[in-house]
Amino acid sequence: MKSKDPRNRNSGLALTLFMVLVVIGFGYSILFQAPEKLAQGLDQYRFVFQKDKGLEPQQITIKNRLGQFKFELMAAVEGQGPTWTLVEPRQFPANQAIVENIIQLIQNLKIKRVYEMDAINLANFSLEKDNLSLNILFKDQTQETIQFGLFNSLDQSTYIALPNQKAIFQIESRPLAWESYSLSNFIDLRIFTLAEQDLISFTIYRNEVNANKIRFSMAKKNGEWTETRHNVLLDTKKVTEYIKSLSLLKSRFILDKKSQKAQKQLEKYFEKPSYHVVAKTKQGTLHYTVSNVIGRLDGVSVDRWKNFVIKASNRLHPYVLDKKAYSNFNPRLKDLRRPKIPIKKIFY
Asked: 39: closest CA among 172, 166, 173?
């Protein structure tokens, strides 16, 4: 009996292998490419939330691997407009830039594809576990929950699930930094939140508000800054830089939890402050009380005589700062005044 031709045997093996690969590929496509688009009608929308809805979040809750953080939009108060406040797990002024970035994200969730919300798709797109999500309460009292899943680095997209809409969306998105943020990232550690264009006047008093104890004072008249005691014109660019330097001051500690003893110590420190700052803005007047260098503060680990405390009328808690920041309350007129024009240039 003649043996089979090796070429026929190899061809048979190749065909069998090809068929096996086809079957595996088909199964793979069913398992992992199951994300079928929903009805064509849903793809006509460019954004998850339609622009004409008037998206105005009033409350945002972020859930990530490090905890749950709740923000509320607070009404305007003296000296400032509506601002976002962190209310859970503790109450602090919120990092406005982060909250605004989240709002921009919500308002601009641009759709690439829409998929059915089923068990296979939830698993494929890492949405079976709620590791990162947003819950938003809008001004019209409607609520939406957005669950974030797999990030596709190849086309810069993210898969999100919206239980209310019973759909999974592939949206255009960059990696979400706040996925790994902790409490400290969501807090605004600044004391001064002033902007030069909103300021009307700015005065620093020694110890207390008293016309005889003015350390420095400037006011804006007809769009120009003037040092009021000597009626000297100031350089707007330099004034802007000075105001910015105040806004860059960040606290070492926010004293939201204080013992009764620490509260009494703070009251004593503020009885005879080193400075009192009054900033008049378009929204109203803000007051800042600056203590002298402090010694002990019960329950707070600070070095003696190396820090001071400041409280602001638009902040709920006092702040602790390094004493090096004292220089910001001693601006020098010569550093802010407008440069004199040489006589030669006048007659040039």
From this structure: 166
Q: Which three-class secondary structure state does DSSP give residue 251?
A: coil
CA distance linking residue 195 with residue 328, whole number of Å: 16
Q: What is the pLDDT of residue 30?
A: 42
- Alpha-carbon gap, residue 283 to 200, rounded angstroms: 10
Contact 264, 282 (CB under 8 A): no
Torsion from C-alpha of 292, 295, 297, 303, nearest 10 degrees: 110
Which of 52, 68, 51 lies closest to 60 in space, CA to CA? Answer: 68
∠ CA 35-37-42 to the nearest 5 degrees? Answer: 140
Bridging pattern class, strands 232-233 and 253-254? unpaired
In the predicted model, what is the mean pLDDT of residues 181-206?
93
Q: Got the DSSP string for 256-298?
A: -S--HHHHHHHHHHHHS-SEEEEEEETTEEEEEEEEEEE---T
pLDDT score at 15? 61
3-state secondary structure of 62: strand
Contact 106, 57 (CB under 8 A): yes
Question: Per-residue pLDDT averaged across 62-84, rounded?
Answer: 89
Residues 6+ apart with CB under 8 A from 343: none
Whether pLDDT at 25 is above 90? no
Q: Taking Cα atoms as reference points, which of 62, 166, 174, 179 lies closest to residue 121?
A: 166
Q: How far apart are CA 101 and CA 85, in angstroms?
A: 15
HSE at residue 224, side-chain half, CA atoms within 13 A, is 11
Decide: 217 and 320 in contact? Cβ < 8 Å: no
Beta-strand (E) ranges in the chain? 57-64, 67-74, 83-88, 92-93, 111-116, 133-138, 143-152, 157-162, 167-172, 199-206, 214-221, 224-227, 232-233, 253-254, 275-281, 284-294, 307-312, 319-322
Range scoring the smallest mean pLDDT among 72-76, 90-94, 341-345 = 341-345
Say which amino acid occupies 51: K
Looking at residue 176, its pLDDT comes to: 85
